[in-house]
Specification:
Chain lengths: ~100, ~625
């Protein structure tokens, strides 16, 4: 399911991002069950959810997390397995934007 | 900062008892806000803070030990948070010190109690509760034990009727173990789910392969040479098993409140105010141990959820370091996975059935129920294969936003929170530019006051729905208000999060008590009863079927409106007046199929659900 672009009617666009406060709130609500990482087809690093959560919004981004964020192609496979209904893809988008900003 | 890591300190600025997620979050956050203060965690626990909700995944081998850690190893040392492994036994609040086990005193400037909860377990008189293989699941060591045993188990009994039990059942099924699940009541999670939702959950668990026994309790555990061999139930059954898992809920650890020289109020948990302060100065409580006031009902209860504990930890850190907190606790929010279904409850969806409009929808193998007062959402329950954006719905309830234009999508589960919130921001910004005024939002407390005022606290403790009173100062909407709300600015007004309208509560006719309200719910579900029955849902025929204001979703049922005619102001009138009684065809003839009604439904407009009383 590729969420960017056009819907089936060909007109409606889909908002990909969430705001900083929303992402921060979702990070607080993450229970660390790792279901999103288990479902991810792009992950080939040994990343734990606590490191990923910690580096998503602020602070330095470590090499494995940066590599993971670059390989994330926003397929949305991580969203359905989340037991608390969080949008990991929106958090990854935030991480991607931070990577672009910091170079 | 070298003095902060000195070994023999006997006092600190911030002393935190307990290194669960609330305690550690508070410590880490306090260190960020107050870089120079001395922070000490006193804990009995010999392992670092872990993601306790992930323990089920850990027990069935989906996760390894490292993935359980909440913070990377060594976080406390890196942030100069001193950890003392000891049991805190007494609080001397007058002299501001605590006594550790062995008699050592420890002084504090601000104290946080985050001792969490302990499992209720089996009754102490239950025969056989000490056999090997009877596990009460709560702590890391319980799950380590379970993880080691799983490979040898063929049959297991799970005792308990909550979300914890269901997760355990699913974990055992994942391992191919035959599971007997005993529930004391006749429904699952009766405080959070109504009967259709509960039956849907139980149905899905049965389809997943578990054997569900409702209204069944364990009378004793049978063993052989010290090992569990079976469970005897009150239904005269012997269920053979090699493992008994007890998930009968938790209780807050309030022993410190009892061992405090000043009176610290506690009941099911330590009572705290909105600022997480206990009744004793300089002492705070957070996490599972803290009984927090529900802003909607005014009742104090612990919120034993991960999200609540993390946000309380963050909040209490800013309060203890005299910074202004950035977040409010808000209304209760609980999201979890129950087998193959995702459950979300926000606010209070089962309370005030006599004054709220309840909307329910059970299409597409999912179920949603909303409690609405005027056009404000006060409670939301969702059960289905996918999880809606619960935090956005929480925000809608807390800010008291009008849901008039999103009611249908909320009910159908197609609500797109991102585009809604982004549209809302656009409208607020636009209004700010055109009016030149900054939007001012009421505090949560003020917004919830109206809802809370409607019922005396005392009568709510035993879940008796109180007699409805009209809210003070909420006269019916003036005609002028209505006309204004129907002008061209309508869309803009409703998109504005800061528009406040008086909330009005009226009692609907035919609503005598809780039972009849529930019956009304069942009545309006009537058209769907056959389909529910086909899917294995038992119909409840004992209760009288009374017409009510509870209105079924148009997908399922078209309520036949008894009177015709609508006032010019449209549905706004209906919000401010008692909702009309509706007759449901299938109530009188519960056996007839509802095909024609469904077709009829599609021809009705949205407003036909609500009807204005004739003037």
């Amino acid at each position: 399911m590729f969420r960017a672009g056009l819907s089936k009617h060909g007109k409606k666009t889909v908002t990909l991002h969430k705001t900083g406060p929303q992402v921060a709130q979702e990070l607080v609500a993450c229970i660390g069950c790792n279901e999103c990482l288990l479902a991810c087809p792009a992950l080939d690093e040994a990343i734990t959810i606590d490191v990923l959560n910690r580096e998503t919004l602020s602070g330095p981004i470590s090499t494995p997390v940066a590599h993971f964020a670059r390989s994330c192609f926003q397929c949305g496979a991580c969203v359905a397995p989340c037991p608390v209904g969080l949008s990991r893809e929106a958090m990854m988008m935030w991480l991607k934007v931070r990577l672009l900003r910091t170079g | 900062m070298t003095e902060l890591v000195a070994k023999n300190i006997d006092s600190a600025d911030l002393v935190i008892i307990g290194n669960g997620i609330a305690g550690l979050t508070a410590a880490v956050e306090a260190r960020r806000l107050a870089p120079d203060s001395r922070i000490v965690i006193i804990t009995e626990q010999s392992h670092p803070t872990i993601n306790t909700p992930a323990l089920k995944q850990f027990a069935i081998g989906k996760l390894n030990h490292e993935q359980l850690l909440t913070y990377p190893a060594g976080t406390e040392q890196a942030r100069f948070i001193h950890v003392i492994n000891a049991r805190a036994e007494e609080i001397h609040a007058q002299d501001r010190y605590i006594t550790l086990k062995g008699g050592r005193g420890f002084g504090y400037s601000e104290l946080l109690i985050a001792t969490g909860s302990a499992p209720t377990g089996l009754p102490p008189t239950l025969p056989g509760r000490d056999f090997d293989g009877v596990l009460t699941l709560h702590r890391l060591y319980d799950y380590l034990d379970l993880r080691r045993r799983l490979a040898e188990v063929e049959e297991a009994v799970v005792i308990g009727g909550g979300a914890h039990a269901i997760e355990t059942v699913m974990g055992l099924l994942y391992w191919g173990i035959r599971v007997h699940w005993l529930i004391r009541g006749d429904t699952f999670l009766p405080r959070m789910l109504d009967r259709p939702a509960s039956e849907m959950v139980l149905d899905s668990i049965e389809r997943a392969g578990a054997l569900v026994y409702t209204e069944t309790e364990a009378l004793g555990i049978v063993g052989r040479v010290g090992m569990v061999a079976g469970v005897v139930t009150n239904q005269q059954q012997l269920l053979p098993c090699q493992l008994v898992l007890v998930c009968t809920g938790t209780t807050a650890v309030t022993s410190l409140a009892r061992h405090c020289d000043l009176k610290m109020k506690h009941k099911q948990g330590i009572l705290v105010d909105e600022q997480l302060r206990t009744s004793v100065p300089h002492i705070y409580a957070a996490g599972d141990v803290a009984a927090i006031k529900d802003p909607q009902t005014g009742l104090y209860a612990p919120r034993a959820q991960w999200y609540a504990a993390v946000s309380q930890g963050r909040m209490v850190a800013s309060l203890m370091t005299s910074s202004s907190p950035t977040e409010e606790l808000g209304v209760p929010w609980h999201a979890t996975r129950l087998g193959n279904l995702s459950m979300l409850t926000v606010g209070n969806v089962l309370q005030w059935q006599d004054t709220t409009t309840t909307l329910a929808d059970s299409s597409r193998s999912s179920y949603r129920r909303m409690a609405v007062i005027d056009d404000r959402l006060v409670g939301y329950l969702s059960l289905g294969p996918s999880q809606p954006d619960g935090l956005a719905i929480k925000c809608i309830i807390e800010e008291g936003l009008s849901i008039r234009d999103i009611k249908k999508s909320l009910l159908k589960g197609t609500f797109d929170a991102r585009s809604y919130l982004s549209r809302r921001r656009t409208h607020s910004a636009q209004r700010m530019v055109t009016t030149g005024k900054l939007p001012v939002a009421d505090g949560l407390e003020k917004r919830m006051q109206a809802i809370r005022n409607r019922s005396p606290q005392a009568s709510r403790q035993d879940e008796q729905l109180p007699v409805t009173r009209a809210l003070p100062g909420t006269d019916p909407l003036l005609r002028a208000d209505i006309i204004e709300r129907n002008t061209d600015e309508d869309l803009q007004l409703f998109a504005n999060p800061f528009v406040t309208a008086p909330i009005e509560l009226h009692r609907s006719r035919g609503q005598q008590d809780n039972a009849s309200t529930d019956a009304g719910m069942r009545a309006t579900m009537g058209a769907n009863a056959n389909r529910l029955a086909e899917r294995g849902f038992a119909a409840d025929d004992k209760r009288p079927l009374t017409p009510s204001h509870i209105i079924e979703s148009t997908l399922l049922k078209a309520p036949r409106v008894t009177r015709t005619g609508r006032s010019p102001s449209g549905s706004l009138w209906s919000y401010s007046r008692p909702l009309p009684s509706v007759n449901v065809n299938s109530v009188e003839t519960p056996g007839t199929p509802a095909g024609n009604d469904v077709l009829d439904t599609n021809r009705r407009g949205r407003k036909s659900q609500f009807m204005a009383p004739s003037a």
